[in-house]
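Hi P.,

Sorry for the delay on this. The queue was packed all week, but I finally got your sequence through. Input first:
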Amino acid sequence: MKATVHDLEVISDIRTYELLKYNPISEHITDITFTTHEYYKAAVLEELVEGLSLIMCIDSYVIGFLTGFKGEVKADDVGFTGFKEDYAEDCAKKLPCPPEVAIIKVIVDEMRKCIKYHVPVGYYYSISRFSIQKDFCGAGLGKALWKASLTIAKQHGFKYVEAECSAVASTKVAESLGLRSFFVFPLERAILNGKPFFPPVLSDGLTGANLVIGEIDNYNTL
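Then the structure:
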């Protein structure tokens, strides 16, 4: 169902206070304070309210969400020009927020610069990440949300879709729907003040972030 503003507030709470502890990126962050949570929640809400959001519940226990918005590739867009030696300056522009929020925002910015190389000039549908409780990764929730969002995109006349993906499970979901996945940002290249911010490999095997691209007309799963 379509998410309301109240739904988004509830989801941001769940993602921040319940799901954050399951995120492998969080495991090496020792200073997850109330302030950090508040900044993280604000970042989640900012992402969610960008456009149309969907939520899905199973027995009022498992909650997943997906949010999409219209993007556009312009002829004069500046694309990805290569990894920087240090992203501290880029992260500083995202202040005030904790470094773990800032670096994620910067990585997403870099990923979106790659879109122009894979999507023609014009409009596309952008899908943001979904979150589900860790033990329910096999419940089919993610795939159902992907299909619902792609259906909406198709109904609105979008030909191309893009998504940022930083989880092994959701990458497999995307590929099962015929989306092409590009390895864009290795965690080892997230350098802040001369040091890698993330471990090169996280506990779930994640080594970086993917950019997922697809042409909706080619999907035979909708």
